[in-house]
Write a structure and sequence with these properties.
CATH architecture: Orthogonal Bundle
Distance between the termini: 23 Å
CATH topology: Helicase, Ruva Protein, domain 3
Number of domains: 1
Largest sheet: none
Number of strands: 0
């Protein structure tokens, strides 16, 4: 039976929306995400250890143009990894219930996942230390994967149905129904 105030329709919509499972939200909370999280955090740690240790020594031995390219790429690498790590930490907070998806989306404006490429010309990049090049390539791949997941989550959120507006009376009826149902 359909009521003229739309409360039956709204209740059905709310129940339907509550039972809908987004593939991308499920993926973001899965073992695949946990693996991506571990991979990302591990890459951050390995890169930091390299840049603070062997990388620093390698950069001192480079000729001036290569030293400038090294400095540029290492700064871009560090920035890229910090942005990816920030996104991963936000998503983990959502997965663990510390933040809602909406709260994480509002914080996301601080996280820039813009696609990047290597800044220096290819012939110069090829002359940089092998370890730095490997970290750059790994970080670009990780950033692309995280960016894809982020865009997929945003698209899933944008496509999520929104409940129809309830009248003030219908909203009160729904609150009462929810209170007595629990």
């Amino acid at each position: 039976m359909r009521r003229s105030d739309g409360s039956a329709q709204s209740a059905a919509f709310v129940e339907s929306a509550a039972n809908t499972v987004s593939f991308f939200h499920r993926l973001a909370g899965s073992e695949a995400f946990k693996s991506l999280f571990r991979e990302g955090m591990s890459l951050v740690e390995e890169t930091a250890a390299y840049l603070d240790g062997p990388g620093r020594d390698e950069s001192r031995r480079l000729a001036r143009p290569l030293a400038l390219a090294y400095a540029t790429e290492s700064m871009r690498l560090t920035t890229r990894l910090m942005q990816v790590a920030s996104w991963l930490l936000l998503q983990r907070a959502v997965n663990e219930g510390e933040l809602t998806f909406a709260q994480a989306r509002s914080e996301k404006h601080r996280v820039r996942l813009a696609e990047q490429e290597v800044a220096c010309p290819a012939e110069l990049f090829e002359q940089l230390p092998e370890a730095l090049r490997a970290f750059c390539v790994k970080s670009l791949r990780l950033q692309a994967r995280v960016g894809h997941l982020d865009r997929s989550l945003a698209a899933a959120e944008a496509l999520a149905p929104t409940p129809p507006e309830l009248s003030a009376v219908a909203a009160q009826v729904e609150r009462l129904r929810a209170a007595f149902a629990g």
